[in-house]
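User: Hey, my collaborator sent me this sequence without any context and asked if I could get a structure. I don't really work with proteins. Can you help?
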Amino acid sequence: MFKKILFATTATPACDNAAHVAFDLARKYQSELTVLHVFGRPSRGFSATVTDSRSGEEDYVDADYVEWVKDEMKTYYAEQSKASGVEPTMLPVVGIPHTEILRYLRKSDVDLLIMGAHSRQEDPGATRYRSVVGSTMQRVAKAARCPVLIVSRPCTTCLWYFSNIIFGTDFTKASDSAFKFAFKLCKEIGAKLYMFHALDLSSVQSGTVLEQSEIEAMIKAAQRKMELKYVSQMGDYDNYEIEIWEGIPYVEILKYAREKNGDLIVMAHHTREIDPEQALLGSTVEQVVLRASCPVASVNRPDKVSD
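Assistant: No problem. I've predicted the 3D structure and written it out in structure-token form, which is a compact way to encode the shape of the chain:
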């Protein structure tokens, strides 16, 4: 399923939760794992110095320095490598983080990218405290042609990935690729697919009080749409459930995932009908990423998910 996995990391505790998932996934699916760390930003002009991404200090970079960074990466992940039996390729590079990550994705035909939602949890101004994901993750998820698995918190439900996969949809075109990825994954690994839609009554119906009969009619319509749009593509695959709830979408998705012991949530990167290159991470998936106790896969394009 995942022949090549890229784990993009700052090699700091902020990415430890993502590292746990990356090594475990590589072990289970016998994937080729590459650990990419963009350790410094280059100076302007033709200078050989870089600004270290962690210390903020200027360093002169040569082959010995790069080898030292690689050894540091091996040491940092030595325990996880030993426990999982996975020997990743350590790849330290200099550059702008999102540019280098996307450059590697383009040239290496990666099946899955794994990242943390943010990179500096010790910073009071960091994304965790502002309830938004980091700018590098935003830029990479927007442009990546493969699914991006985002890990924000310790994974408490996924004991052995993945058996209960939650697909959250709002029926937009952008959700079609997310469905293909979730369904393809379920078929290949024998997981159960939970297809979920939340009626957004809080925002769509602002100022309007709906009769219960109207809500129930909307739920039935969503159920029919789920069957026509997705179940019709599933052939004889019957290991699935459909659920329609009403409320604030990200809250309901998180509640549903907890109820079903979901170990992976799959959603479209955005819901607006615009060019994926221009779309920011949707507010619903962003809040799910930051609050979910399991990894969240953001799918932006059909490239790596179609049969």
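In plain terms: The first strand starts at residue 4 and ends at 8. You can pass these tokens on to your collaborator as they are.
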